[in-house]
TrEMBL record, chain A:
Main localization, broad class: membrane
UniProt-recorded name of the protein: NADH-quinone oxidoreductase subunit D
Biological source species: Streptomyces globisporus
Swiss-Prot/TrEMBL catalytic activity: a quinone + NADH + 5 H(+)(in) = a quinol + NAD(+) + 4 H(+)(out)
Any one Gene Ontology cellular component term annotated for this protein: plasma membrane
Taxon lineage: Bacteria, Bacillati, Actinomycetota, Actinomycetes, Kitasatosporales
Keyword Translocase: yes
UniProtKB/TrEMBL annotation, chain B:
HAMAP family: NDH1_NuoC (MF_01357)
Domain NADH:ubiquinone oxidoreductase 30kDa subunit residues, every copy: 102-223
Originating gene: nuoC
This protein's GO CC annotations: plasma membrane
Topological type in the membrane: Peripheral membrane protein
Renumbered residue ranges of the record's region Disordered: 1-23
Pfam families, sorted: Complex1_30kDa
Record's subcellular location: Cell membrane
The protein's assembly and partners: NDH-1 is composed of 14 different subunits. Subunits NuoB, C, D, E, F, and G constitute the peripheral sector of the complex.
Signal peptide: none
Keyword list, A-Z: Cell membrane, Membrane, NAD, Oxidoreductase, Quinone, Translocase, Transport
EC number: 7.1.1.-
Enzymatic reactions: a quinone + NADH + 5 H(+)(in) = a quinol + NAD(+) + 4 H(+)(out)
Protein name: NADH-quinone oxidoreductase subunit C
Length: 440, 243
């Protein structure tokens, strides 16, 4: 009998069942009849537990995964190619959309690369650098919160999902206050930031830190010692240090194997060497260790944010060089945030040179001396590297992102093969891949 | 200055224009004119302007900092393996505080293995490969760029390998750095670089039956013209660009 939930279809590869509902009877029945023990399960690309459009191809024998492969590319948007057709400043608008959970890391890594090519690293105002660190650490919090929340949900722990998204919302509220947008900010620009913090931002930030200090221990109470949580996560997704090094895994995956490698310490950028924080590690090499590391990193991020607030001195947030700084003075109008009317009146009405300059910089952009550079930042997922090549033009010649999710996802097979089907979900969640970053 | 009466005449003829600074690097492009006005007659007055674009050229010793130490160790280690360093390392570039070794493609695997295994070098982590397409760099159109990080010594270097469009083969580094598996598939997918010895070199981002290599410079971006407030705005790759 055919059910509408699992219709069989004969192909050259054998019978293919498309399972859409909860009725597995026919699949089980025919699997019993079949003399071939091997079943290939195609999970995704539309599956709620694979973090976006990730396709997992699992060869299973009973409940054991014998082979696991990833199919990616479903979210490829050609961002690297698109960058080559826009000017350098417009690039931030694209890169912020790659790993959409870590927009500030994408923007900062890209801008650090462009600034290095321009040779203006020393001219970036202190306030801009401190604010970049502040935004990145807030972003680390929101990214880890999503990881813990969705990871919990995939175990069936919906409470931890609600908690995680509740706290992430607080971070996104801050982002909205600072940049005008909850995601996809394009706020970090080559040379500094799009604009300064609005009035009252620091007070809100202090309030947020107070709330987070109250909320973070709740995750410990809910999950850290929870026997079900531990039973599902311990020894699952095992990848030791040798495996991490061979597969190029970085971030919490590498640190769960005991190596305290964090670019903020080993290859500091944005003045991270002057901040006081610790790099947590675990020696369990498993999903549970990665969970504990993420929790601790959130506490350390709060510490860094507190230090950032102390260092915030009034000052410019964009380089003084008017040949690079985007000539915008934003103001809130009746139709939202836009160029200040006073500024436009000044440009259009008082100075022909200012008008020409504004026009040239906005339509043509600035030129970047020919050469190439590699800059890397420690994103919540690992080493986010940017290889920027310039041919001396007003547009990037080539920008390549080494996204940590892309590299870490390769470790999926090593983590899952030989384990249970149900553990695949936990292992993939512990890598924390974001397909926007994987596929770009 | 009256002793050289021809100077002004020369300037008018364009002969006294200072020659473009030759850094000895690869010429990747010759830029003509200005403002991207290359269709129709030249009304800008800059139509005769010709400039060559070169990447930073080879550096000479001392490179500075730990760069010399890495270069010495690498050369020494290659000599021990009876490989003449001059044959493997085409040139060494130091630019913007970054060290780049241009490696002859036939020696790439041996150099990478040496960089990984030699105790004084120990570049354990490869951050993948990035392809770059220079259609103007004749005979060296396709570049594969590797960044190697040493966690032991806290260093990072760059290896650059080139291949012509007509023979886009580069040996695979998957044996040395298994992490390059997906990275090489990506570079193959977008640039058509064929990594010899890769276990399964297939497309990774684009559909399996895709034709062409999208990140090459001669591959169009695509897109359609859109109407905005009554005007037709051409697709991004059809808009005027500043040369």
């Amino acid at each position: 009998m055919t059910t509408p939930h699992a219709t069989p279809r004969a192909t050259t590869e054998g019978t293919v069942y498309t399972v859409t509902g909860g009725d597995w009877d026919e699949v089980v029945e025919s699997a019993v009849k079949s003399d071939d023990e091997r079943i290939i399960v195609n999970m995704g690309p539309q599956h709620p537990s694979t973090h976006g459009v990730l396709r997992l191809i699992l060869e299973i024998d009973g409940e054991t995964v014998t082979e696991a492969r990833c199919g990616i590319g479903y979210l490829h948007t050609g961002i690297e190619k698109n960058l080559e057709f826009r000017n350098w400043t417009q690039g931030t608008t694209f890169v912020t959309r790659m790993d959409y959970l870590t927009p500030f890391f994408n923007e900062t890594a890209y801008c650090l690369g462009v600034e290095k090519l321009l040779g203006i690293e020393d001219q970036i105002p202190d306030r801009a650098t401190v604010l970049r660190v502040l935004l990145m650490e807030l972003n680390r919090l929101s990214s880890h919160l999503v990881c813990i929340a969705t990871g919990g949900m995939e175990l069936g722990a919906t409470t931890i999902m609600i908690y995680g998204f509740r706290d992430r919302e607080l971070v996104l509220d801050l982002f909205e206050l600072f940049t005008g947008l909850r995601m996809n900010h394009a706020f970090v620009r080559p040379g500094g930031l799009a604009q300064d913090l609005p009035p009252g931002a620091v007070d809100q930030l202090r309030e947020f830190i107070k709330t987070m200090k109250k909320n973070l221990p709740e995750y410990d109470k809910l999950a850290t010692g929870n026997p079900i949580f531990k039973a599902r996560m311990q020894d699952v997704g095992y990848l030791d240090l040798t495996g991490c090094m061979a597969l190029g895994a970085t971030g919490p995956v590498l640190r769960s194997a005991g190596l305290p490698h964090d670019l903020r310490k080993t290859d500091p950028y944005c003045g991270y060497e002057t901040y006081d924080f610790e790099v947590p590690t675990a020696d369990t090499c498993d999903s549970y260790g990665r969970f504990l590391i993420r929790l601790e990193e959130m506490r350390q991020s709060l510490r860094i944010i507190e230090q950032c607030i102390e260092r915030l001195e009034p000052g410019p947030v964009m380089v003084a060089d008017k040949k690079i700084a985007w000539p915008a003075q934003l103001a809130l109008g009746p139709d939202g945030l836009g160029n200040s009317l006073d500024h436009i009146r000044n440009i259009m009405g008082t100075s022909m040179e200012a008008l020409i300059h504004h026009f040239k910089l906005v339509t043509e952009g600035f030129r970047v001396p020919a050469g190439q550079t590699y800059t890397a930042v420690e994103s919540p997922k690992g080493e986010l590297g940017v290889h920027v090549v310039s041919d001396g033009g007003t547009r990037p010649y080539r920008v390549h992102f080494r996204d940590p999710s892309f590299t870490n996802l390769q470790a999926m097979a090593a983590m899952c093969e030989g384990g249970q089907v149900a553990d695949v979900i936990v292992a993939v969640a512990s890598i924390d891949p974001v397909m926007g970053g994987v596929d770009r | 200055m009256t002793e050289n009466p021809n100077a002004n005449g020369d300037e008018r003829n364009g002969n006294a224009v200072p020659a473009p600074r030759d850094t000895g690097g690869e010429v990747i492009r010759v830029r003509k004119g200005m403002f991207g006005a290359n269709n129709g007659g030249d009304t800008s007055g800059y139509g005769g302007l010709i400039r060559t674009v070169t990447l930073p050229g080879a550096a000479s010793r001392p490179y500075g900092g730990w760069f010399d130490e890495v270069a010495d160790e690498l050369e020494g280690a290659l000599e021990e393996q009876d490989l003449l360093p001059a044959n493997a390392i085409e040139k060494t570039v130091v630019d913007r505080d970054e060290l780049t070794f241009h490696i002859a493609r036939e020696h790439l695997v041996q150099v990478a293995r040496t960089l990984r295994d030699d105790p004084a070098l120990r570049f354990e982590l490869c951050t993948g490969v990035s392809g770059v397409h220079f259609p103007g760099d004749k005979g060296r159109e396709l570049h594969a760029v590797y960044h190697l990080r040493s966690l032991t010594h806290g260093r990072i270097i760059r290896l650059e390998v080139s291949a012509p469009d007509s023979d886009p083969h580069i040996p695979s580094l998957v044996q040395v750095y298994p992490t390059n598996d997906w990275h090489e598939r990506e570079a193959y997918d977008f640039f058509g670089l064929i990594f010899d010895g890769h276990p399964a070199l297939t497309r990774i981002m684009m559909p399996d039956d895709w034709q062409g290599f999208p990140q090459r410079k001669d591959y169009p971006l695509g897109g359609i013209a859109v109407e905005y407030k009554g005007a037709q705005i051409p697709a991004p790759d059809q808009r005027r660009s500043y040369s």
